Amino acid sequence: MRDLIRWLARRGSGRDERGVTGVLVAVLIGGGVLLGVGALVVDVGQVYQNRAELQNGADAGALAVARTCVLATCDASTSGTGTAASFADGNASALTGGSATVDAVCGYDAQEPLALPACSPATGTTGSITDCPANPAGVNYVDVHTSTGSPGGLLPPVFARTLLGNQNYDGTRVFACAQVEWGASTQSNSLALTISYCDWQSLTGGKFDTLIPVYLKGKAKPCSGPAGSNLPGGFDWLRTTSSTVCTAVIDLSTDTTYNNTGNNVSAACKQALESYIDSYNAGKPVTVFIPIFDATSGQGSNATYTIMGLAGFVVTGYANLPGGGNLGPKSYGPANTLCLSSAPCVEGYFTPGIDPVGGIGPGPGFGAYTLKLTG
């Protein structure tokens, strides 16, 4: 700037100096405008960054809170030691001092109606400071609202909202909201083993986390199904996606009928069971997802099963599993503590679990749940 003024002074020396002042004024005004625009860009950029961090924290917090609702009891705390706050703070940067405020954790849990405070009816409306979706009806969901002070300068609310295209800024704070729904899973890359609904009812009474023995086709514990129709109780093997894995792809939104493979366990399925039992014995139980059937048709290896839902299950042992060739020991793990019959038996317990494949359905839940970020 000094060089420019000296140049202009030399140019005007001994000449008509009219216009020089105008040029200087224009330069100074232009410089001020550029500085102002630069400051505005910095402020807007910081608000955008703040908003992104808050949204990431709200998303992660809502998923984590929903997980507590599925696996235990909803953690609706908004304190700094709560589930939502730990994820909100974990996504904050030095821009906000590594912290964010959790303003609300609310929603609905059908299993525990009092576990979550109800969300305000204003959520999701134009009068709300955050743009959460409208409260869904008749489903399990949780909303997590977060906020923090605005970094850097303060943008006028109307101007900032015009630039940001939403309502998540009031001139002093930036806001974010996330919503997660959960329900019975309809899709899974399941263990290729199916258990009858009647056996599930008789062995568990609908309760989780109790060790039970499940016998192949109910040889040791027959049971009858709905409306008096006789069903083979216990478990049976489903057709796998390949000979090297013990996986059946289940999608109840498109098909509920799946084929079996007969009584013999494959080498891949026995290996899969033993890996789960090893994890359990090491203190790291693995929740697998298995289909629950309530009807059958056909016989033997041509039989088909009508699947009504998916269950979370932890395998702890097996005994007397038939199979072709040398498939290792007939018993594995602590199965002999419960599998007292000489019939083929799988030991374990049903437990809630989060199925990562996805798909939420209206059908009955047997402990296999899916979480879905809906806003």
Any overview of this molecule?
The structure is a single chain. This protein has helices spanning 2-12, 20-71, 83-90, 157-164, 197-204, 267-281; strands spanning 101-108, 140-149, 173-185, 187-191, 193-196, 212-215, 223-224, 230-231, 235-237, 247-251, 257-259, 288-297, 304-319, 331-332, 345-350, 353-354, 360-361, 368-373. By secondary structure, the protein is of the alpha+beta class. The chain has two domains: 40-182, no CATH class; 187-369, no CATH class. The strands form four sheets. Strands 5, 6, 9, 11, 12, 13, 14 and 15 form an eight-stranded mixed β-sheet that branches. Strands 1, 2, 3, 16, 17 and 18 form a six-stranded mixed β-sheet that branches. Helix 2 (20-71) runs antiparallel to helix 3. It is elongated, with a radius of gyration of 31 Å. Mean pLDDT is 77; it is low at 23-28, 30-42, 123-128 and 225-230.
Give keywords.
375 residues; 2 domains; alpha+beta; 18 strands; eight-stranded mixed sheet; elongated
Offer a quick outline of the entry.
With 375 residues, the protein is an alpha+beta fold. It folds into two domains: 40-182, no CATH class; 187-369, no CATH class.
- Report the total helices: 6
Helix content: 25-40%
The value of Rg in angstroms is 31 Å
Task: Please indicate the percent range of residues in DSSP E strands (runs of 2 or more).
Answer: 25-35%
Largest sheet: number of strands, sense, barrel closure = 8 strands, mixed
Mean pLDDT metric: 77
Shape descriptor: elongated
* Strand and helix order: HHHEEHEEEHEEEEEEHEEEEEEE
Q: Which blocks of ≥5 consecutive residues have pLDDT under 50? A: 23-28, 30-42, 123-128, 225-230
Q: For this entry, what is the oligomeric state of its chains? A: single chain
How widely separated are the two ends? 51 Å
Find the count of extended strands (DSSP E, 2+ residues): 18
Tally of individual domains: 2
Assign the structural class, choosing from mainly alpha, mainly beta, alpha/beta, alpha+beta, or little secondary structure: alpha+beta
